[in-house]
Specification:
This protein folds into three domains: 6-227, HUPs (Rossmann fold, 3-Layer(aba) Sandwich); 249-325, Chorismate Mutase Domain, subunit A, CATH 1.20.59; 331-462, no CATH class. 37% of the residues lie in helices and 21% in strands. It has 14 helices and 22 strands. It has helices spanning 6-20, 37-48, 70-83, 103-118, 131-143, 148-151, 174-183, 200-215, 219-248, 257-261, 265-278, 286-296, 390-396, 401-404, and strands at residues 28-32, 57-63, 88-92, 123-126, 157-160, 163-166, 255-256, 306-309, 312-317, 320-325, 331-336, 342-344, 347-355, 359-360, 368-371, 378-379, 388-389, 409-412, 415-419, 423-424, 435-443, 460-462. The strands form five sheets. A six-stranded mixed beta sheet has the order 3-2-1-4-6-5, sandwiched between helices. β5 (157-160) and β6 form a beta hairpin. α9 (219-248) crosses α11 (265-278). The protein is elongated and about 95 Å long.
Length: 463
């Protein structure tokens, strides 16, 4: 009979129950089972203690199909689950990484995406990350120049899909797991990628950490504890940033420049990152964040500086920062009958028949043309004795510069007669008893003050 490793199992359950505190009673408990040493130990220990668990235990294996023997691994995992009378689920990935994409990063993202799609409300997923994994993550983050958010390493608990991801082995070391697997005569698969020195994490695992332990035997535990402290520091900083952010945001969700400048520099950067994440974007790297703090925030009030990264574009306008998706501006020139609603890249243009106001209906008899802005357009506003540039009119109406590219400029022949529903040029205005069109411009949400695209060179649409 195999000896029982009560201390290992008790430590595991103590950690698991601690991580479950504050959560709703779980419906299902999944173990991410790769078939390797660590997940084999996790599955075996929990199966041995299943009567103390609050819900059914299920093994789930992800086949990345990256190696020729992956199907054999899946079979091994299914057999191990069956030997413990546990339900088994296999998730097979069908996509492949893009050319030049990090294989490790792709596999991790694809794996967790598959897990997220499986988890329903009050489901828990357990992974076998342990203390040495935490130490490796801390070292990798430090060598990459990460801040507190990166140095906090692997989170013990976080949301995933409809449920939660828990890591109850973070307090246990690789040596603890090794002893447990040997005493239990467990059989596991060795993934060659885990010991390939060409991979950064494997290099730290096989070359660096063993050398550190020869001089500092507790190096793994100390580094993991440092990562935990970084996590606590980051949590406190995020709470402070959230509190500051609520006081600095405008009703439209933009960020007050004056308010940001009143903060201490470290908190200023933290608030920016928090705001960017809250808007659904990945924060920029340190260089671009420095541009925002040192260039955008200090620009002259009449400037509209911008910083772009990934799929995001940040601008300063009228003493506030505005964040937008970085998308293509589409140029257009289309014929329009005001009887019909015209769909444009930035919204929908329509017209309602009226009398004594709006655009003269007689101008539309030969058809109107709706074009995107080119720049330099001029118009004489009602009540004015001279023409002025549309740019100045839009400035006086406080239309943000990036929204101007999406506005429909309406022409009768080659003459500009109106811009969206903002104004009709004096010569095109309906007389007191004359039939007119009341123009209506319904801007897409994506083109609003927080969702306007950067004015990159784009495509063109013609009739």
């Amino acid at each position: 009979m195999r000896p029982r490793s009560v201390d290992f199992e008790e430590a595991l359950l103590h950690s698991l129950f601690g991580l479950m505190e504050g959560l709703a009673p779980p419906r299902r408990l999944f173990v991410a089972f790769s078939g390797g040493r660590d997940s084999s130990a996790l599955l075996h220990a929990l199966a041995a203690q299943r009567l103390r668990l609050p819900c059914p235990l299920i093994a789930v294996h992800v086949d990345h199909q990256l190696q020729a023997g992956s199907a054999i691994w899946a079979t091994h995992c299914a057999q191990q689950a069956s030997a413990r009378s546990l339900p088994f689920i296999e998730l097979t990935l069908t996509d492949a990484p893009e050319s030049g994409e990090s294989l490790e990063a792709w596999a991790r993202e694809a794996r967790y995406s598959a897990f997220a799609g499986m988890l329903e409300t009050d489901d828990l997923l357990l992974t076998a990350h342990h203390q040495d994994d935490q130490a490796e993550s801390f070292l990798l983050a430090a060598l990459r120049g990460s801040g507190p958010a990166g140095l906090r390493g692997i989170a013990p608990r976080r949301r995933l899909g409809g449920g939660w991801l828990l890591r109850p082995m973070l307090e246990l070391s690789a040596a603890d797991i090794e002893v447990f697997t040997r005493t239990q005569d467990l059989v596991w698969i060795q993934d060659p990628m885990n010991v390939d020195p060409a991979r950064a994490r494997s290099f730290l695992r096989t070359e660096i950490l063993p050398r550190l332990r020869r001089h500092w035997p507790a190096a793994g535990a100390v580094l993991a504890r440092t990562a935990q402290w970084q996590g606590e520091t980051q949590a406190a900083l995020e709470a402070c940033a959230e509190q500051s952010l609520q006081a600095l945001m405008t009703p439209e969700g933009a960020l007050s420049v004056a308010g940001l400048q009143s903060l201490a520099v470290p908190l200023r950067s933290s608030v920016l990152r928090h705001w960017i994440r809250a808007r659904g974007f990945v924060p920029p790297d340190a260089r671009r964040l420095g541009e925002i703090v040192n260039v955008v925030l200090t620009a002259a009030p009449d400037r509209v500086p911008e910083v772009t990264w990934g799929g995001a574009c940040l601008r300063r306008w009228q003493q506030a920062l505005h964040l937008a998706p970085r998308t293509e501006v589409i140029r257009f020139s289309l014929r329009w009958d005001p009887v019909q609603v015209l769909s444009l890249p930035g919204g929908r243009l329509s017209a309602v028949p009226v009398v004594g106001e709006g655009l003269r209906q007689s101008l539309s008899r030969d058809g109107l043309t709706v074009r995107s802005r080119k720049g330099g357009e001029r118009c004489r506003l009602p009540g004015r004795g001279h023409h002025t540039t549309v740019k100045h009119v839009l400035q006086s109406l406080r239309v943000p510069p990036w929204r101007r590219s999406a506005l429909p400029f309406i022409y009768a022949g080659d003459r500009l007669v109106a811009v969206g529903d903002l104004f009709v040029c004096a010569e095109a205005l309906a007389g007191p008893d004359e039939a007119g069109w009341q123009l209506q411009w319904q801007e897409d949400a994506a083109m609003g003050i927080l969702g306007a695209p950067c004015e990159d060179a784009g495509s063109t649409i013609h009739d």
